[in-house]
Amino acid sequence: MITQAIILAGGLGTRLRSVVPDQPKCLAVINGKPFLYFIIQYLKSNGITKFIFSLGYRSEDVKAFLEINLLGNEYSLAIENEPLGTGGAIQLALKISEDTNTIIVNGDTYFNVDLKGLSSFHFETKAECSVSLKPTINFSRYGVVEIDSDKTITSFKEKQFVESGLINGGVYALDKEKFIAHNFPDKFSFEKDYLEAFVSSKKITGFIQDKYFIDIGIPEDYAKAQTELITHI
To answer: What local confidence, expressed as pLDDT, does residue 21 receive?
Structure first.
């Protein structure tokens, strides 16, 4: 099983500034605790023992939180000097990773994926990247992901209103060696420049999980998390 996770927690959180003006998104308070607390507890409950936090905006605030909530030998930090995009942030974190395969999660999204199941799926399919997919209805905020009969992803569609479909839930299992072999620039988008660009030429698979999902990146869903999240931990 994969026992290491990279947590992307360096975003500016501009869409959430109206309700969380002075903190990184991952520290937005949900029922008295920073959102990152719930992410860490979820990861630990799924067998993760090593953490790499990719930080940027107000990294000192996140570091202060981690010093209280994790042991020093449990985590490492990869800190951006400037915004590198999701791909650049992952690439920077992988430079200090000692594991060949790693779980990747977003610091502003909670998707209750079975990580042991994701790990097994990732190894069984021999994928370069395994993407956790959430079945969703009546949405326009996310693009649709299409897969074939053996769970290989065939396309990532643009955002549009869809009555039902699969969305990218932002939880990945990634093969470090295959990923870094692409020689990406320092700054790039994991979603656009990697997943969408290589979907037809690399083994990128979809792991379907109909589990609780919430992205606190906008005020409406941040408000929903205050009442919903605690019931799904």
So the answer is: 66
Q: Would you say 219 and 19 are in contact if contact means Cβ atoms under 8 Å apart?
A: yes
Beta bridge partners, 76, equal 52
Question: Can you tell me which residue has the tokens 């998104």?
Answer: 25
Beta-bridge partner residues of 174: 102, 129
Is beta strand 50-55 parallel, antiparallel or unpaired with respect to 4-8? parallel
Tell me phi and psi for residue 192, to 5 degrees.
-80, -50
By mean pLDDT, which of 70-74, 88-92, 203-207 is the weakest?
70-74
What local confidence, expressed as pLDDT, does residue 59 receive? 96
Q: How many CB atoms lie within 10 A of CB 142?
A: 19
Q: What pLDDT sits at residue 23?
A: 81
Would you list the DSSP string of 185-203? Answer: -SS--IIIIIIIHHTTTS-
Three-state SS for 120-182 is: HHHHHCCCCEEEEEEEEEEECCCCCEEECCCCEEEEECCCCCEEEEEEEEEEEEEEHHHHHCC
Q: Return the residue matching tokens 């719930």.
A: 38
Which amino acid, 33? K
Q: Which residues contact 104 (CB under 8 A, 6 or more apart)?
A: 5, 6, 8, 90, 171, 172, 173, 174
- Taking alpha carbons only, the member of 131, 123, 86, 122 closest to residue 106 is 86
Which residues face 77 on adjacent strands?
A: 53
pTM over 0.70: yes
